[in-house]
Amino acid sequence: MKFGVESEGEKMSANDTGIFNEMLSGDQVRAAYTNLEQWHRSMPAELRSLKQSEAEALFRRVGITFAVYGEGGDPERLIPFDMFPRVLTDPEWRRLDRGVRQRAAALNAFLCDVYDRREIIRAGRIPEHLVTNNEAYEKAVAGFRPPRGVFSHIVGVDLVRTGPDQFYVLEDNCRTPSGVSYMLQNREIMMRMFPQLFMENRIRPVDGYAGQLKKTLASVAPKKCQGEPRIAILTPGQFNSAYYEHSFLADLMGVELVEGQDLFVEGDFVWMKTTEGPKKVDVIYRRIDDAFLDPLCFRPDSMLGVPGLMDVYRSGGVTICSAPGAGVADDKAIYTYVPEMVRFYLGEEPVLENVPTWQCAKKDDCKYVLEHLDELVVKEVHGSGGYGMLVGPKADKSTLEAFEAKIRDRPENYIAQPTLSLSACPTFVEEGIAPRHVDLRPFCLVGESIELVPGGLTRVALKEGSLVVNSSQGGGVKDTWVLAE
Amino acid sequence: MLSRTADHLYWMSRYLERAETTARLLEVGARNALLPDLSGGYRNDWEAVLRAKGGYELFKEKYDEANQRNIGTFLFFDAENPSSVLSCINAARENARVVRTALTSPVWDAINTSYQDLKQLQRTERSKLSLNDLSEWTMRVCHLVRGAISATQLRNDGYSFIGLGTSIERADNTARLIDVKYYVLLPSVSYVGSGLDQSQWALLLQSMTAQRAFNWTYTGEITASKIAHLLILNRQFPRSLLSCVQWTCDHLDDIAAAYQMPTRAQDVAHQLLDDLSRAEVEDIFDEGLHEFLARFMARNAGLANTIQDVYLHGMPA
User: Fold this and answer.
1) Contacts of A256 in chain B (CB under 8 A)
2) Chain B contacts of A238, Cβ < 8 Å?
């Protein structure tokens, strides 16, 4: 599916597929991409491969590597970086910006509500069992209102695009969305390698993120905290696939990066072990799952957490970001109801649409899904990372049959969506550039105010025709530009 | 600073220093092997090298013969040997990686680049690598990292913990290097003062890059007592035991000042410094060089344990 604008034939092939190529509008290169199109055409092949290896060396030197769960091999593998940037115009971004902020606000309002008065359930807008029977629902925090009523302080909203004006929310990530370090580093590396591009295009900066994150975390310090709150990032440790990101963010914010073994509970507070003795910690940005936070409250075999942490949390001695229990809002079964949340809590119409979703838990939906399995994408309700997923049109007969059996066995475990014709962005390949499917994850911060830096992480499916952009399955990343007006 | 962070910084520099010592031993051994074997009375020199490093038993389990090739593999490339250059550089880099944010990027670059180079060396044919090249490479890496630390690290408590790792490890390692001499000579005490004895002492100087230092500091011919003085008691020589202990004390004093709170670590360190300052070369030889060194290593290790307890476990009493 090689394309370009050099010849009429190739242009046609790009359009014929019915896939929206973000660089093109009809036969023409869109204004936002004119400069990039010239840039890539005037770049000799040798220079390109030189730059590509330079980029890789930079990534490796700063240590951005990525461990893939359960795959073995090199634990310090690089996520492939594609140098061709993805561009969003000012009007496009303004809409996304409004939509993402709106969604983040609604999700937090929902979380506050379901752990308190449950008005949305009483109003009959969301079925109760979806909340209370949800694995991510934490009984342990029912009735507890975290500082400023914020449960999810960092909301990662995964977006896909199917046409010039058509964006869909694929899923919400309310717990600990990762990837923001790539957003920042991709930009850093592009600026270092191609400064000219940044003089020729008016690209809005993203480097305010760390400052905003720190401000957000400080703004939710517990009431008992006096003076400047002490913030720490809680990581599962160096063997976690996102460890680089944890240490990168700690560094940018100038806060401590701690493991469970560095913290302990005494009296009404959480303390960290330092060379000068114990120091109180007020806000914990945790990058470990609920289940591992506190062996006394959740999994007793967890070595990653801090015994007694939940007691301190519930008595207002420490703030945990995101709050335990936030996961109930980003579950794939709850996802269907997010537009409803926007209407219910904010009294607004949703700016961003959901992908139409069939819930196999519903009889009629399930019937439809089973009849159209070869056209649909089926996902596990609690799955993530692109695992346990069926892409109907790409699956062979035996895979389809196996999935059918799984759905019949536990229908409530699955949802299905139409195979979207995801947009594609020009991406460097062996012979030049070719369109590859992309998604977008902006990172929205919720504290005293709602903040969103203009940009996000663009993931790209590097394999021709592939729709799976997950870094754990061979996806790559791109710098994402939002152009100033 | 987080105790765990301090712990990683401390061990990073300990392992780095240890890598350098292994490289120096490799060089001593390689050169020693070039000396004529005039008598069946003393042991194989390579064996002496291994004994000084405490890896003799492991080596015997894995290799048939104590020849140059096997020893080179064992001391440089063997991942099962915890003191091999490979193991030490990997461990130093692993410690550094965990606390990346406490290091400047030039320091991290220097450590990470050596790790990548080492991988390259592993893939290189052994016939293309001389022992000299390997030991020189290691020392260059260590100088580079220490240079980056000295030129770019903030002079805060983290810097002091890095320094402590170096000074504690170096004190131990200098003592071990001197001790090689003891193993080489045993059991033929009669060799003391012979021509061979002289050349072995000279070799020891070479292994510590101290020939010129010796010539500048002492006049006349090379004698055991002058060399012992240089390596143990000379305050000008940066690898001498006294210099190392002084350095340990300085770092501990800096930490106490920064925290405005001395601990028993400072007491233990200054006690060791006082005793060492009062020592004379004659007393050391009277006690027996090996006995003196063993006693010193035990006290130095005790000091290291105190530092661990007080600062690196995070729960000072």
Assistant:
1) 2, 5
2) 94, 97-98
Q: Are residues A222 and A316 in the same domain?
A: yes
Q: In this structure, are A271 and A406 located in the same domain?
A: no
A449 is a domain residue: no
Do B101 and A247 touch, CB atoms closer than 8 A? yes
How does DSSP assign A418-464, residue by residue? E-----EEEEEETTEEEEEEEEEE-EEEESSSEEE-S--EEEEE-ST
Q: Do B105 and A62 touch (CB under 8 A)?
A: yes
Beta-carbon separation of B3 and A262 below 8 A: yes
* CATH number, residue A379: 3.30.1490.270
Q: Domain of residue A340: give its range.
A: 99-154+205-346
Peptide bond connecting B187 to the previous residue in cis, omega within 30 degrees of 0? yes
Q: How far is A178 from chain B (nearest CA, A)?
A: 19
Is A458 among the domain residues?
A: no
Per the structure, the count of domains in chain A is: 2
Task: Please check whether residues A259 and A362 belong to one and the same domain.
Answer: no
Domain stops at, among A418, A449, A465: A418
DSSP of A57-107:
HHHHHHT--BPPTT--S-TTBPPPEEEEEEEE-HHHHHHHHHHHHHHHHHH
A137 and A215: one domain?
Answer: yes
Decide if A472 is inside a domain: no
Q: B-contacting residues of A 207-266, CB under 8 Å?
A: 238, 247-248, 250-251, 256-259, 261-262
Chain Cα centroid distance, residue B312? 21
Does some domain include residue A121?
yes
Q: How many interchain CB pairs under 8 A, A with B?
A: 61
Q: What predicted TM-score, i.e. pTM, was given to this entire model? A: 0.83
- Chain B residues in contact with A259 (beta carbon < 8 A): 4
> What burial letters (b/e) apply to B64-100, b meaning 16+ CB within 10 Å?
eebeeebbbbbbbbbeebebbbbbbbbbbbbbbbbbb
Closest Cβ–Cβ partner in B94, B101, B113 for A247: B101
Residue of A243, A248, A274 to mutate, testing the B interface (most B Cβ within 10 Å of its Cβ):
A274
CATH number at residue A225: 3.40.50.11290
Helices (H), ranges, A220-362:
243-253, 290-293, 309-314, 332-335, 338-341
Question: Could B311 and A275 be called an inter-chain contact, meaning their C-beta atoms sit closer than 8 Å?
Answer: yes
Same domain, A266 and A383: no
Distance CA A338, CA A384 (A): 18
Q: Are residues A288 and A140 in the same domain?
A: yes
Same domain, A333 and A373: no
Distance CA(A177)–CA(A185), nearest Å, equals: 16
Q: CA A190, A196, A202, A204: dihedral to nearest 10 degrees?
A: 30
Query: Which residue of chain A comes nearest to B158, CA vs CA?
Result: A275
Flag if A273 and B157 touch (Cβ within 8 Å): no
Percent of chain A with pLDDT strictly greater than 90: 66
How wide is the angle at C-alpha B123 spanned by C-alphas B118 and B125, nearest 5°? 115
Question: What would the pLDDT profile of A183-226 be if each residue is shown by its tens digit?
Answer: 999 999 999 999 999 999 999 999 999 999 999 999 999 999 99
Q: Does A61 touch chain B (CB under 8 A)?
A: yes
Nearest beta carbon to residue B100 from set A247, A272, A275? A247
Mean pLDDT of chain A: 89
A78 interfaces chain B, CB cutoff of 8 Å:
no
Quick: pLDDT tens for B87-96: 999 999 999 9
- Put simply, the answer to whether B112 touches A61 (Cβ < 8 Å) is yes
Q: Are residues A369 and A269 in the same domain?
A: no
B-chain residues near A277 (CB < 8 A): 314-316
Smallest CA–CA separation between B201 and chain A, in Å? Answer: 42
Q: What is the pLDDT of residues B225-270, one digit of tens each?
A: 888 899 999 999 999 999 999 999 999 999 999 999 999 999 999 9
